[in-house]
Structures are given as C-alpha cells and as structure tokens.
Write a structure and sequence with these properties.
Strand content: 15-25%
Largest sheet: 8 strands, mixed
Strand order of the largest sheet: 7-8-9-10-11-12-13-14
Number of helices: 8
Structural class: alpha+beta
Radius of gyration: 37 Å
Distance between the termini: 97 Å
C-alpha cells in the first residue's frame, strides 16, 4: 500500500472522527430540559429568559462553561447569584439565589421591601408573599437602593437582627410591631409573641422557633419578655381556655340566680298557705333547711371556682408542652 493510500485512509478516519464528535456534541448535549430552583420573586420563565438568551444556551456543555450569569443579572435588584449546572447530557439546572427581603413598610400606599442590610431593594404595589410587615417605623421618606433613614438606629438594628434569624425559619410572622413601650411584638395569625426589649434576643428567638410548632391552630399570647439562658420555661396565655372559663363562670352565676328565685317563690307559697301555726313553723323550718342547703351549695361552687386559678400554659425548653 502506497503512502498516498495510507494518508488518505488516515484523513478519512480523522474526518469521520470529527463528524462523529460534532454529531455527539451537537445532538448528544443538546438542551432538551431546563430546571429552575430557588426562585421565589421571579418566575421560571423570567429566569430562563434572563440567562439563556444566547446561542451557547442550546448546548449543555457550552452553557455551563461560557454563559456569564453575573453579567446578565447585574441589573436585577432581587438576584444575588445564578449558577448553571449540567445534569446528565441534556438537562440544565439554573440554581437561583435571590436577595432575601426581611420585611417591608408602607409609604404613600406602596410596599417598600428591604434586605438584611436595611437597603430598600424593591418597591411593590402589593405585599410579597412571606415578607412580613414592619409596623411602627414612621419613615417619612425613602428611596429604592438606599438604606432606611429617619428611624432610631437601635430599633433598626433590632429589626435587622430578628429578620436575619427569621430567614432560617419556614414560618414567617405576618407582621412585626413596636408597641407603645417601644418593645417588639410578633404576630403569627392569632398568636401574639411579646419579645420585650432587645436583650437576650438570640435566646428569645431560639425559644420562639422551638415553641411555634406546638401552638399551631391556637390563639393567645406567648410571653418571651424575660427569657434568658437560665429560663427553664415560658408562659403561653391561651385565649380559648380563658373564654371557656369565662363562659363557665357566667353559666354558674345564672344557675345560682335561678336557684335563688325558685327558693324565694317556695317561701312565698308556704307563707300564704294558711295551714296554722304548725304549718307556718314547718314552712319556716323548711325555709331554714333550704337556706342551709343553698349556703352549702354556694360554698361548694365558690370552692370549685377558687380551685382554677390560672389559664397559663407552660412550654418547657421550647420543645415539650405542659398544660
């Protein structure tokens, strides 16, 4: 076999190899599926349009290596980072990390959402899901992209600190309020959580996170004002139990009143019977006996009422409940 024939065979092999490679590269790694994870504020389609608007996005190998997501998302206020990963041959995974909004406050009918640094990142007409309302800030003026101004620095630091800790929890409060005593109060549906001052706030938040699941579906006030590392238990005032006891007390009072009226009626009937002195004496004895029975009944009722002295429910260590 001549050298020319050998060279031609080698060339053909190389060409065939290149063609096979191109076919595998273009078809085998062609993007057929895109998964978007971690997005909350943006839809899947918005994320895809944001980063996959280039020819390289049609191939999983090229997309993973050559798409600069940082450049493509630099104008997006709520995007912190997007990474592109290849899954198997034909699937791209867009992992989104959005900037966390720890709260919003209302100003001029709009919702101003701010991040963990206290910077107003986005202004919306309606509240964003799972972003709690911060009430009582009394901000007069604010601009997007700037830090919140015009409020007490200590109060702002308390909000930011609590907000960062709430990022780790699945259940977010509906709103955070500074009351008349300038103390923080959190609201979870029908649950009011009194946090008190900003002292021992880390410990208070740890207790809150542990206790909240136990209070699901309940109504009342959770007291964390005086919690320290040495606190063995915290107190929850159950509003449902208080209402039940109030109703029971009212029912007992009505029962006592009806009993008294029945006895009075019996006395009047006996007095008008005209049976003579013996009958009158017998009626008087009966009245005294009834009066003694009533006194005994009243004492029993009073004793029963006194035995129930509180409605607080204690939850030890934020994990086990005691009722």
């Amino acid at each position: 076999m001549s050298k020319r024939s050998i060279r031609r065979i080698v060339t053909e092999i190389i060409v065939i190899g290149i063609l096979v490679f191109l076919i595998v590269f273009c078809v085998g790694f062609r993007v057929t599926k895109v998964e978007v994870k971690g997005n909350q504020f943006y839809s899947d389609e918005e994320i895809k349009k944001m980063v996959l608007d280039v020819p390289a996005a049609k191939n999983t190998l090229l997309a993973e290596r050559f798409i600069n997501t940082e450049e493509k998302t630099k104008e997006e206020a709520l995007i912190e980072r997007i990474t592109i990963k290849r899954k198997k041959w034909n699937t791209l995974v867009l992992q989104v990390r959005e900037k966390q909004m720890i709260g919003y406050f209302s100003l001029n009918g709009q919702c101003l959402n701010f991040d963990r640094q206290g910077v107003i990142q986005i202004i919306t007409e309606e509240p964003i899901e799972n972003v709690p309302l911060i009430d009582g800030l009394n901000v007069k003026e604010a601009k997007q992209g700037e830090k919140i101004k015009g409020i007490n620095k200590k109060r702002l630091n308390t909000i930011l600190s609590v907000g960062k800790m709430l990022e780790k929890t699945e259940q977010k409060p509906d709103r955070l309020v500074f009351n008349d005593l300038k103390q923080l109060v959190l609201y979870y549906g029908s649950i009011e959580v009194n946090m008190g001052s900003d002292e021992n706030m880390d410990e208070k938040m740890n207790r809150l996170i542990g206790i909240l699941p136990q209070l699901e579906g309940m109504e009342g006030v959770l007291h964390l004002e005086n919690v320290t590392e040495d606190t063995a238990s915290v107190v929850f005032d159950n509003a449902a139990e208080e209402n039940s006891e109030a109703g029971q007390s009212a029912e007992e009072e009505n029962t006592d009143t009806n009993t008294s009226e029945e006895e009075d009626g019996q006395d009047i009937s006996d007095a008008d019977s005209g049976e003579g002195t013996d009958s009158a004496d017998q009626g008087e004895d009966s009245q005294n006996s009834d009066s003694q029975d009533k006194d005994t009944e009243d004492k029993g009722t009073s004793s029963e009422g006194d035995s129930d002295t509180g409605t607080d429910v204690e939850y030890s260590d934020g994990s086990d409940s005691a009722g």
